[in-house]
Task: structure prediction
Amino acid sequence: MASLFTETADAVRLLDAGAGVGTLTAAFVEDTCRREIHPKHIEVTAYEVDPLLAEYLRSTVSGCQELCSQHGVTFAGEIRQADFIMEGAAQLRGDLFASQTTYFNRAILNPPYRKIRSDSEHRAFLREIGVETSNLYAGFLAIVVRLLEPGGELVAITPRSFCNGPYFKPFRELLLEGMALKRVHIFDLRDRAFQDDDVLQENIIFHAVRDGQRDKIIISRSQALDDDTMSLREVPYTQVIHPDDPSQVIHLAASDMDAFVKDRLAVFKHTLDQLGVTVSTGRVVDFRVKEMLRAQPESGAAPLIYPAHFVHNAVRWPNPGGRKPEALVVSDATRPLLLPAGNYVLVKRFSAKEEPRRVVAAVLDQATIHAPAIAFENHLNVYHIDNAGLPLNLARGLAHYLNSTLIDIYFRQFSGHTQVNAADLRMLRYPSREVLERLGARADAGPLSQREIDQLLEEEMHNMADIRFLRTIR
Result:
């Protein structure tokens, strides 16, 4: 992280927000002092609210001062044992009793990762300075961006989740409006970098410059923090942040294969709205209707479908010997949670660590479940048409598309979190309804293997590429 900064000016003003014991500050000072051209003065402002960690931080800052002295660099360090969100917001608001606002030309941080409630104090402070985000790390970064002077540089290690999705869109807009990304490094193994915190997130390190040139971005990749090998590629800025994308999604194609997949899927341009299809989260939160759950099917109860009912890209209900409830009693209270009998496409919202695929879709065929209504548990995303089922061939084709290797690879580069949210599925682009139904019709002979699914989709992409070529000639 320290090595990503460019050659420094004569005077460096470094911000380390959420400094912990000062590891990043120490790395920055050591790297800077050992460069052939180093600054004459380094001034560090480090925030750490935890009293115990702040004691270790003082020792680290003292060591930084000694190292600077050995290299002829003057040093000043200030430790602020305060809540960075609250103090930073107060400074940016210009509160009368807030400490004087200091602007920085360097910032390095590993911000805390924690969801913040919409009614929390931190959320209120952030909203007062025009920042809307649901996670603490994005709040830290938003304030840091506002505290950087033109040309100031930021290097941070964070979850990758801010790169896409509606929840982080306001933060992406703030970040990308003020900062130019220069380098992004991806850690592929989501259970390694934050394993001490039990957070299953893919993680990135990124380097960005305030008001910098938006020409090229270097994207690198390694398996985990302790992996010495990495791939590296330089790509045009517009391949990472598409200028005509209103969602400002950050596309991180870290390999030629990632770029190939992205280009191949570009032939599909239909939105779910254009297909006349909707995807939403399953309505049943089981612990809220605990008294209405039944372990086995019974009269007066609707089938209740969980991810555990997925078997080979289809839904098998009931599931003998399963540990989940099999049915939901139908009543005035539960009737709004039901959908009418029909063909539905279901996608797991959460992928387990050992799951080989990120997107796992299955078809619920109404011919296999004889009931007037069906309930879907909240860990599922449900594709439907106006709260009713899909034509069977459309459902099968849609499931094939979602289960393809191309979609799996694309979703891994597109989404850095472990969930597959309905909002993410809405942002995907799909084949036309005609193509999906043609894909689904090929499944009449029985379940398709992964290889067969991929071959069918490849054939359709070739067909569509040929059609586009003919239209261009005409």
The longest helix spans residues 450-473.
